[in-house]
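I am still getting used to backbone structure tokens and would like to learn alongside you. To get us started, please write out a protein record for me. Once you have written the record down, we can walk along the chain together.
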Amino acid sequence: MEHFVVSARKYRPQTFKDVVGQQAITNTLLNAIENNHLAQALLFTGPRGVGKTTCARILAKMINSDGTEAGDEDFAFNIFELDAASNNSVDDIRSLTDQVRIPPQVGKYKVYIIDEVHMLSQAAFNAFLKTLEEPPKHCIFILATTEKHKIIPTILSRCQIFDFKRITVKDAKEYLKYIAEEQGITAEDDALHIIAQKADGAMRDALSIFDRVVSFSGKNLTRQAVTENLNVLDYETYFTSTDLILENKIPELLLQFNNTLSKGFDGHHFIAGLASHFRDLLVSKTQETIELLEVGEQTKAKYLEQSKKASHEFLMQGINLANDCDLKYKTSKNQRLLVELCLMQLASITHDGEKKNSKHYIIPASYFRKKGITPIPVNIPAKTENATTSAEAKTEIPEPVKEVAEVAEKFQVTEPPKIVLKQESKRTSGLSLKSLKAKKEHEIKQMEVVINEDDLPKESFTEAEFIKVWNNYIEKLTKDGKHNLASILSIDVPKIKDTVAHLEFPNATNKVEVERQQYDLLSYIRKTLNNFDISLSITVNEVMEKKYAYTTAEKFEKLKEKNPNIDMLRKTFDLDV
């Protein structure tokens, strides 16, 4: 069987013209080589898979090329690649600086490519500084990293920095299209677009995904095969959902959401994608912003068609509801219900307009439309003691209104009783003695709550679990700036007996301070361990206080026990303690 080479290696660029999406950097490097303005220390930084190491290798090959060598010459003797992730010690850098002194055997320059340079230790960076600042004339350093912020400033100031950008979806799709043609693969435009989006700006990731999808679907790459293999929600899911929302079909919408969950997608992914879909529809409504759509031509046509059905107000309200659901998702106890409620609210946006317009009719307006009758608002007059005049009695009433009036009279429709709210006679200031007293009484009433202790959780826990929660609370206090209480709690490790935590402190001051703050401490521990029987028992140990407060003489005696020569030193020079 023929050995398979992944596309990321097979189609690795060999010249700067082949590099995708980094034209500004490649043009700068080409001009620097032609004009002999190339710095001796370069730093390539940027996300993974955008061409940093590839450009370093191409540059190393080009600066040694004079046009007389063979086409397959790679100058392997002049190019040294060092992986700083595994060679990050001072000895590795010293070995490298010793090699730098030796001039190249072939070509003009020795090129050192140090990948993942941010992994070097602090000592290794410092050992590298002098060589990087004043390297020999025949030596060029190319450093590559994904995390520039981890490199010390003294290294950054000695390098010429090139920031590689993420590869756009359009550029990645065009390169994938070229590779598909090279391999004789028929690929749909939308399929390649989904792969480019999934890669998130990394060309290497895009090629790896491309290989995986080709292995799954063969020579014919379809959008359906890509979405199935990558486990991403297809555009069609959101187009169908939006149609159901606009048509107020709540049951069908909930069934479609259930079908989406059954395929393995979570509700968070679905609702976040729906918000993005509404955003794309909003973008499609204006001719100037259509270019912001990062989709294929066929999908763009669908967006333009559906954007005509949805109003601007609906899309703005829909984005707001979906985004609100997205923010609440992680903290929700019932996440599925949260998404379903959001979908029902979305499907009710356009339905509310009909309800508001029909509130003046006793019979819904939809009933009259089905019958082909134009509805007329009816106001039923209240009954009075005076009889109607004969002239009013002879007034002709339309048939539909007559029927409605008879029904109303039969069931004795009357106006509902009015509810009169009692207003406060006098407003009081928020800072008056009366208002403060009332507020205090209200707080006391709120505290008078009877809790059945049998209903509170009492889960079992180990001493190790308790100590872990105890240490977490101390870290929390430190982050909040409560260093005094944190240091007091760090004095002793609690000993657990049943549900009582026993503590010993060197003085009464520590005990009083902990007892003042024990409500917050116990509340945190009880909620974390889910056991509301936990309590504290605090004692003062005078021996422990002695241990924490040595006098000068006691310190000297301790030192003398460890080294008797200290006493001889004191006597020789007649020193006082």
The chain has a mean pLDDT of 78. The two ends are 86 Å apart (CA to CA). Strands lie at 41-45, 79-83, 110-115, 139-145, 160-163, 186-187, 220-221, 495-497, 500-505, 535-540. Residues 267-284 form the longest helix (18 residues).
